[in-house]
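Kindly review these tokens for lecture notes.

. . .
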Amino acid sequence: MGPSSPNIKSFFKGQEIFKEGQESSVAYMIKKGAVNIYKVLNNEKIILARLGEGEIFGEMGVISKGTRSANAEAADYCDLIILTDQIIFKLLEQCPKTVQYMIRLFVKRLARTGEMISAKGHRSNFTSICRILDLCYQNHLNLPREQAKKERNHDMGLEYNKLCKTIRGIILVSQGEIDAVINKLKSLRILEISDIRTGRAFPDRFVQIVDPLNFLEVSNNLFKELQKTAYTSTSELQVVDIYEVAEMLNSDPKILYKKIANEDFPETMFLFDRCKVSEWAAHKEPEYFSKVKKKKKGLDELEDIEDIIFVDNGTLKEVFNRLGYHKLGVLISIAQDDARKKILMNLARKIAQIVQDEVRGSVDEAEAEDVVFELFEMVREIKGGSK
């Protein structure tokens, strides 16, 4: 262990912080570096999570007054702030009594669920996923009204991405298997799935249990029936690279890269080799991951509204004078972030307000495509290029 102060402990890369089964007397907040949370199953080290600066770990054992449910080691050199049980319970006491009770109850149930799953050797990820889903949903339903109001779309049910993260943090299961279980329950109307469009390419997804009181009994009976029909769970996904995906879909890797960048590809399909990513990232500068350097495009490559950032201001002003208010309004309504800023920057303030008022609500997709095409055709005409 490296140099430390009364409230901070330092650990070198690979150094053990605590082991599964040890008594839990303190939790930790990562001030600097990173920490791996892992389990050892069948002599294989399985990393459950890699935590970074500002994240807290080890608190579950302290609140439940139990033992460590997993191992922790320094993934890099790290400084950890020690959170004693007195500090944790003092923070907990600042919450309303109902919230205190719910946190303690949730932690105990979560720990018990983890023990039950471990004791059975993960013989069934189907039932394990259902147990965790039930626990999370009961906690969701019992959330105090004031706290529930602060949660975005609380009445829609559990946020799917958060649910999946919780499940993967407790049991060793792939995203593909979680999706398979949820889709099976949905197809039998045991669950209801709702999608909300938020302006992103793929929607936010929420899960509701149709009959919360009988869910575990129904899911257990379902699993027995599925076993009779030779249902088998899949814990590993068949991995393919982007070139094979392009071939499967009769597409082109360059098009797929664009769809990924535009969030047109579900994020649940992205799986990375942890060790290879860490090895690759180690050779990059820290600022490499804080911003994206846009590659400049030629005139013939301009096609999406986001490509407007590659057009010089003088040309844009000339094009905008020819387009008219309505078409400018269409462009503003579909442009995002840098592209939108680029458009507004080349319009007088009063004109910008007028064109934004021209288009209210949804824009016809076909019309938007035509306007974007016309925009870049004018740009190419002015600049002397041709597509």
